[in-house]
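Aim 2, interim progress: modelling of the adenosine-5'-diphosphate-bound target.
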Amino acid sequence: MSQYLLAIDQGTTSSRAIIFDTKGVRVGQSQQEFPQIFPNDGWVEHDPEDLWQSTLAVCRNVLKDTDIDSSTVASIGITNQRETTILWDTETGKPVYNAIVWQDRRTSEYCQALVEQGHGDSVQAKTGLLIDPYFSATKIRWILENVEGVKERAKLGHIAFGTVDSYLLWQLTSGRYHRTDATNAARTMAFNIHTQQWDDELIELLGIGDVIFPQVMDSSDDFGVIDEQWLGAEIPVNGVAGDQQAALVGQACFTPGMVKSTYGTGCFLILNTGDKALTSEHKMLTTVGYRINGQVTYALEGSIFVAGAAIQWLRDGLKLFADASETQSLAKQALNADTVYLVPAFTGLGAPYWDPDARGAMIGLTRDTSASDIVSAGLRSVCYQTKDLVDAMAQDGANFETLRVDGGMVVNDLVVQFLSDLLGITVERPKVTETTALGVAFLAGLRIGLYESLDQISELWQSEHCFTPDMDEDNRHKLYDGWVDAVRRVRSSL
Ligand SMILES: Nc1ncnc2c1ncn2[C@@H]1O[C@H](COP(=O)(O)OP(=O)(O)O)[C@@H](O)[C@H]1O
Ligand SMILES: O=P(O)(O)OC[C@H](O)CO
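Predicted structure of the complex, ligand included:
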């Protein structure tokens, strides 16, 4: 009898369920978008019920569409938008507030105060992170401080915190398991990545000690068996990882020095650093790449908040095209592509600037600037931002010759070629670009013995196309200098 792996990919704009066979070949997929909630300037929320119901719906749909009996699903993997914060009451099982999404900037002032009080170095030393509203811990504090009655319920020991993986696991197991994995824990700013424990001192400092934190497991582990009522069978969950780390696994970047970059709503470049937790001098994050058999593989990460989201803005905000697939032919018509820049700092700037108060801009406009030029500038902005990260990592001593890319944007050949041109290195696009889901399916399969080792998983990875640089050095420098100048103009603190 065939065996399958079901990957749940709960992302920022949609929930996906993908079924893979044991060779990592996609058998079926279902996807559902859900509403984004913007209650205030810089605030972004999701209704946890939407996250759960859309997840459940896509799991049921993919089983139905593929006509696969749920009893033949050997294991489930859960991968998720990271940092997004949910607090729920353990007695009622109900969230006490909307999920505060990773992009949300509401705790910006509090973070600034923490920096001014001199906590930056110790936070970085323990968590590998820079103090920023991006991470979960200050979002937990905000809910405790601002939602009526929650602090009191927490004092009584009834309030649980979870990132999205943890909340979905709780739902799927009907409240039996409150767990997460080390990659998700590493994004909370409350987890010590060296001891692999929640950090009591930090939790105390942030005033979030009354909340119940989830048990932290390996990324490939026995997370619990889902309740039969949801998918018609009791299926074990054996893989959990934040989506960007899952993509690292899906791209088979298992050797120190291997690097991948994922282009979805945002862009996240992750470099495997092996058993060494390197501290960046250039504002990269130190994080957990994956944890298997208690063994931590560390990574350096550069996080860009707006990549594909810029393309969505050009489509929905400026209405320059109806579908993202049109951007390639539009950009080919651009006559001023080299002089028009779009800095998409809509929610501030992430790495390597960490400037929550910066805002976006278009630079270099003239009377003959066309819609095509602007579309081209939007596409190129993700490449320029990637170069910012690659240069910062190089200054930290990390150089690499090849970059593996994935995510919704990399179907666009123009983007990937420009990326290779600008970086001056080979950029490889894999056959399966749903690497996030594939990665967590691999983690689940590893635990139940479908794969013997990471080496065996590496052998399943296949390149679809290799892009090599085709731009002279002078042009590369000229173009990038223009970007650096454009970014300088939008910084809040310069
Ligand atoms: N052909 C294309 N060219 C450029 N961008 C694209 C193209 N197709 C999709 N995108 C962008 O890719 C993003 C979707 O990628 P995806 O990996 O599904 O994102 P997420 O997982 O963050 O929801 C969208 O922001 C969309 O604008
Ligand atoms: O949902 P995505 O793919 O945009 O990923 C979001 C990241 O995990 C945020 O850190």
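Residues 11-12, 81-83, 102, 242-244, 264-266 surround SN-glycerol-3-phosphate (ligand 2) (CB under 6 Å). The CA atoms of residues 110 and 116 lie 10 Å apart.
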